[in-house]
Write a structure and sequence with these properties.
By secondary structure, the chain is of the alpha/beta class. The protein folds into three domains: 193 residues, P-loop containing nucleotide triphosphate hydrolases (Rossmann fold, 3-Layer(aba) Sandwich); 134 residues, P-loop containing nucleotide triphosphate hydrolases (Rossmann fold, 3-Layer(aba) Sandwich); 74 residues, RRM (RNA recognition motif) domain (Alpha-Beta Plaits, 2-Layer Sandwich), CATH 3.30.70.330. 32% of the residues lie in helices and 20% in strands. The strands form four sheets. The chain has a seven-stranded parallel sheet with strand order 3-4-2-5-6-1-7. The chain has a seven-stranded parallel sheet with strand order 10-11-9-12-13-8-14, sandwiched between helices. It has a four-stranded antiparallel sheet with strand order 16-17-15-20, with helices on both faces. Helix 2 packs parallel to helix 3. The longest helix has 13 residues.
């Protein structure tokens, strides 16, 4: 067995993956054998691993500078890729730079340059202007969710970055949208296209929900009550609308989280963590959540506002019916409103059942220690079981960050846990525990 196959097996074991799917195998081979690759595959099919594996296999362990640059359109996608790359446990240093974290923190990380740098266009362009890192050894450039990164607003930064990288030998572009024109400034020639967009499509049902009033809040509440305990996402077009929807749901005692660009980065991350671990089953969001965020399988999504473009409709719907799972997209429509041509519903959802969602049985706890303190998920689990006196089933998902961690704990056990382990030593560090 070759060393690359052994290394891949070790990485997949760490990620608890039995084997690569067909798209990942095809993409990996294409990236190894072509200078320019465009990877098209639906949301949730594992594109991140598909390009990280071949990139890591081609890294030079003797090189002390950045060798691969991954550009992404959002902070959340940068954080997600960084998390996946670190969980692979390759031994290579990997960092993510994005707006919302201090520039001095970036500089500190660059004292020992990472082999792979992930970042948003604005932050990476800023670094290049300040000449904070060497570009000579950057041989691989990835534009993840490139259709979003190449939109107006990103174009100037993207052009500046690409022009500043003289030695790129391999370009990898990924997207979940077909028919996107690649601008000339990317410099792609003779690209190999790996297209899995129309293969093995999951079963997505699109249903309209008719609101008798132009203001659709009452209809939204009726729909969510009917859906009960299912997990889902409600999309709004504007961040100002989210607060209004959130207030209305709070008034009707429907638990939820919020996610949009105007939130502080910590609040955005906390909303996703609580959604992933089941503290919240419902997330109210703008199109920022339509792609590039790490969230679990969803039973449904709701278009509270009609999407403005066909592409956004596709990306929103991509949050449900992922991989081989079915899903439902509900389109809330005022009775006097016309649907755009790109929305072709399969039928109408009649509202009749009232089954209000109950409060979830989990709460999320913050732990003031992480990877940097040599703390592992196993350490945290042992700490909560032994010192916090929790039983199996009372501790849920654990998420480990560089400087902190988060754990889901049964709501009725939180007071007990805080009393027993707050300000106690976890391995060698005294940690603070608090409810998020």
């Amino acid at each position: 067995m070759s060393s690359s196959i052994k290394n891949q097996r070790a990485i997949l074991d760490k990620l608890s993956i039995k084997e690569l799917n067909e798209m990942q195998k095809t993409a990996k081979f294409a990236i190894h054998t072509n200078a320019n690759v465009v990877l098209l595959s639906p949301t949730g099919t594992g594109k991140t691993l598909a390009f990280l594996l071949p990139i890591i296999e081609e890294l030079d362990p003797e090189c002390e500078q950045i060798q691969a640059l991954i550009l992404v359109p959002s902070r959340e996608l940068a954080i997600q890729i960084e998390q996946v790359a670190r969980e692979m446990g390759t031994g290579f240093k990997i960092n993510a730079f994005y707006g919302g974290q201090s520039f001095s923190k970036d500089r500190s990380e660059l004292e020992t340059p990472p082999a792979i740098l992930i970042g948003t266009p604005g932050r990476i362009a800023d670094h290049l202007r300040r000449e904070t890192f060497e570009v000579t050894d950057i041989k691989t450039l990835v534009l993840d969710e490139f259709d979003k990164s190449l939109e107006i607003g990103f174009e100037a930064d993207m052009t500046e970055i690409i022009d500043a990288l003289p030695n790129v030998k391999k370009n990898i572009l990924t997207s979940a949208t077909k028919g996107i024109e690649i601008p000339d400034f990317v410099g792609l020639k003779d690209e190999e296209i790996v297209n899995f967009l129309d293969i093995d499509k999951p079963d997505l049902t699109i249903k309209t929900v008719i609101s008798p009033e132009k203001d659709k809040l009452d209809t939204l509440v009726a729909l969510l009550n009917q859906l009960g305990e299912k997990r889902g996402l409600v999309f709004c077009n504007f961040k100002d609308s989210i607060q209004r929807v959130s207030d209305f749901l709070n008034h009707h005692k429907i638990p939820h989280g919020c996610f949009y660009g105007g939130l502080e980065q910590n609040d955005r991350e906390n909303a996703l963590i609580k959604f992933r671990n089941g503290t919240h089953r419902l997330l109210i969001a703008t199109d920022l959540a339509a792609r590039g965020i790490d969230v679990p399988e969803m039973d449904f999504i709701v278009h509270y506002h009609l999407p403005l473009k066909a592409e956004e409709f596709t990306h929103r719907n991509g949050r449900t019916a992922r991989m081989h799972s079915d899903g439902v997209a509900y389109v809330l429509k005022w009775s006097g409103e016309d649907l755009p041509d790109f929305i072709q519903p399969d039928g109408v959802e009649e509202l009749s059942i009232s089954n209000p969602p109950t409060k979830t049985e989990w709460k999320t706890l913050y732990i003031s220690g992480g990877r940097r303190d040599k703390i592992s998920k196993g350490d945290i689990a042992g700490f909560f079981f032994k010192e916090g006196k929790l039983k199996k089933g009372e501790l849920g998902d654990i998420e480990l960050k560089q400087e902190s961690a988060f754990a889901a704990v049964k709501s009725d056990k939180v007071d007990q846990v805080l009393k027993l382990i707050d300000n106690k030593k976890l391995k060698t560090k005294k940690v603070r525990i608090s409810v998020v």
